[in-house]
Design a protein that fits this description.
The complex is a heterodimer of chains A (256) and B (197). Chain A has 256 residues and is an alpha/beta fold. Chain A has ten helices and twelve strands. Chain A is globular. Helices cover 28% and strands 33% of the residues of chain B. In chain B, the strands form three sheets. Chain B has a seven-stranded mixed beta sheet. Chain B has a three-stranded mixed beta sheet with strand order 5-6-9. In chain B, α1 links the parallel β1 and β2. Classes of the chains: A alpha/beta (256), B alpha/beta (197). Chains A and B meet through α3 and α5 of A and α1, β7, β8 and α7 of B.
Chain lengths: 256, 197
C-alpha cells in the first residue's frame, strides 16, 4: 500500500484562494501558488485546486494559476470544477495539472469520464461524488455544490464511475462538509467495499483523529481545507498523529 | 545542453520542463529527428501506450536506434514502458530498445496511486538526491529481468516492482521524480549532470 496521503484543497476563484460557500461573502485567503508551495514545504502529499469561478470568461485564470504552480510546486496537482468537455480536461492537464477531478458535468453526461480516461489514462481521471444522506439510510448523489438532486445512489454511481474509467474517487459528504465533526465513515466504508480504485475522504475534518478514522475506514487519502487554512490544524501535527497510530506516512526532511 | 521533451500534448510536462531548464535549453518536440539531435531525450510519463506509439509513428525505429547507439534518455512512467517490446496496455509495438513486455499490475487496489518507498537502490542519482519516497500513478509495470539493470525497487501489496532501471545512458523511472518534491527534482538534475556534464 502507498503511504496514507494528505491532500490540501484550495477553492480558487478568479485566480485567488477564497473561503465561503455563498459568492456574496467570500473571504480572500491569498495566492494559491504561494499557499500550495507552503503546504508542499509543510509535507502535504498533493494539492487540489477546486475552480469555483462563476463566469466562463474567468475560466482561464485557474489555468494560469496551474501553470505557475507547476513551475514552483513539485507534488501532484489536481484541478477540479468547471471541466465539461474533453477539451477542458486537456486544457487543465496541458496547463500543469497532473489529474483532473470531474464534478457535476460528469453526472449530467457520464460519457465524459470515459473520454478523459481513454485520452489521458485512468490514473489522471478523478471522479467527484457529492454524497448526501437519505432518510432510507443510503446516500444520494448531489450536483452543483450539493443543491442539485439526482436520485442516483452514491454506491451504484461510484461503481459506474470506475466502470467508465475513473482511476480515483473523491468522496465528499455534503452533510459533514464544513462541520468539522469528522468524515462520514459509513459512507467511506460503503464506497470502499464497492470499488478497487483509491478513494479520497472529503468533508468534515476537524481533528487529526478524524483523519486517522478515515484511513481506518478504508480511505487511501484524506482531503482537508478549512481546518488547515485557518491553522486549527497543521500537516505536521496530523502526520505525527498518523505515525503514532501506526499508519504509513511519507516523512519529509524539510518539514519543520 | 539541449534537452528535448517528447511532448504530444497528452498531459502535464510543466513541472518536468521547469526542472530540466535548470541545466540546459529545453525544447518541446513531437518529431523524432529533433529528439535524436538533442543531448538528452526525455520521454515523459503522461498519456496512454498506443497513443504515444502512434504519435511516434514510423519514426519509432529511428528513435530506438538512436537510444541503442547511446542517446542519453530520461524515461518516466509511461515513457519507461515505451522502451520495451510491448505492453498489455496497448496493441501497438513498443520501441523495443529493451526486450520484454510491460504487464498490468496484479494488486487488488488499482491504479496504483500515491507515495511509495524506493528501496534496494544501487542507482547513483537516488543516493545523490537522497530520494526515499517516490510518487506513483500507474497501472502497468516493467519486467524485472532483461538486458536492463533494476537499480531500485518498490513494493506494491507484496509485489516487488522496478522503481528505476538503467541501460547504459538510459534511466527509466516508474514513479514521477518531477512530482516527488525536492529529492525528485534533485534526482533529475543529478542524471543530467551525469550524462551531459
Amino acid at each position: 500500500m502507498p503511504s496514507a496521503r494528505l491532500i490540501v484543497c484550495l477553492d480558487v476563484r478568479d485566480g485567488r484562494t477564497v473561503k465561503g460557500t455563498r459568492f456574496e461573502d467570500l473571504v480572500d485567503l491569498g495566492d494559491p501558488v504561494d499557499m500550495a508551495a507552503g503546504y508542499e514545504a509543510a509535507g502535504a502529499d498533493e494539492v487540489v485546486f477546486l475552480d469555483i469561478t462563476a463566469s466562463t470568461e474567468g475560466r482561464s485564470t485557474v489555468l494560469d494559476v496551474a501553470s505557475r504552480t507547476a513551475a514552483e510546486v513539485f507534488i501532484p496537482l489536481v484541478i477540479g470544477g468547471g471541466i465539461r468537455t474533453l477539451d477542458d480536461a486537456r486544457a487543465a492537464l496541458n496547463a500543469g495539472a497532473d489529474k483532473v477531478c470531474l464534478t457535476s458535468p460528469a453526472v449530467e453526461r457520464p460519457e465524459l469520464i470515459g473520454e478523459v480516461a481513454v485520452a489521458f489514462g485512468e490514473q489522471c481521471t478523478v471522479a467527484n461524488l457529492d454524497a448526501a444522506r437519505t432518510d432510507a439510510g443510503g446516500w444520494e448523489v448531489r450536483t452543483h455544490m450539493a443543491t442539485g438532486r439526482t436520485g442516483l445512489d452514491v454506491v451504484e454511481w461510484a461503481v459506474e464511475c470506475v466502470d467508465r474509467g475513473a482511476g480515483e474517487l473523491l468522496v465528499t459528504s455534503v452533510d459533514r462538509d464544513g462541520t468539522r465533526s469528522g468524515y462520514d465513515l459509513e459512507l467511506l466504508k460503503a464506497v470502499r467495499d464497492a470499488v478497487a480504485v483509491p478513494i479520497i475522504a472529503s468533508g468534515g475534518a476537524g481533528t487529526a483523529a478524524h483523519v486517522i478514522e478515515a484511513f481506518e475506514a478504508g480511505a487511501d487519502a484524506a482531503l482537508l481545507a478549512g481546518a488547515l487554512h485557518d491553522t486549527t490544524l497543521s500537516i505536521e501535527e496530523i502526520k505525527s498523529a498518523m505515525l503514532d497510530a501506526g499508519l504509513r506516512v511519507r516523512t519529509t526532511t524539510s518539514a519543520s | 545542453m539541449r534537452i528535448a521533451i517528447f511532448d504530444d500534448g497528452a498531459g502535464n510536462v510543466h513541472s518536468l520542463a521547469k526542472v530540466l531548464a535548470a541545466r540546459g535549453e529545453v525544447v518541446h518536440e513531437r518529431e523524432v529527428a529533433a529528439l535524436c539531435d538533442a543531448d538528452v531525450a526525455v520521454l515523459p510519463g503522461v498519456g496512454a501506450f498506443d497513443t504515444a506509439m502512434a504519435r511516434l509513428g514510423s519514426d519509432a525505429a529511428v528513435l530506438a536506434a538512436a537510444l541503442s547507439y547511446g542517446l542519453a534518455c530520461l524515461a518516466i512512467c509511461l515513457g519507461m514502458q515505451l522502451l520495451f517490446d510491448r505492453s498489455e496496455e496497448g496493441e501497438l509495438d513498443g520501441l523495443g530498445v529493451l526486450p520484454g513486455g510491460v504487464q498490468r499490475l496484479t494488486s487488488r487496489r488499482r491504479p496504483h496511486i500515491g507515495w511509495e518507498m524506493v528501496t534496494n537502490a544501487t542507482e547513483t542519482t537516488l543516493s545523490e538526491s537522497g530520494l526515499v519516497w517516490g510518487y506513483y500513478a500507474h497501472s502497468y509495470v516493467c519486467p524485472s529481468k532483461g538486458l536492463h539493470r533494476v537499480t531500485s525497487t518498490s513494493r506494491i501489496e507484496g509485489q516487488v516492482i522496478p522503481a528505476t532501471i538503467r541501460s547504459d545512458r538510459i534511466l527509466g523511472v516508474q514513479f514521477h521524480p518531477e512530482k516527488s518534491s525536492a529529492p525528485g527534482t534533485a534526482m533529475i538534475r543529478a542524471f543530467l549532470d551525469e550524462v551531459a556534464p
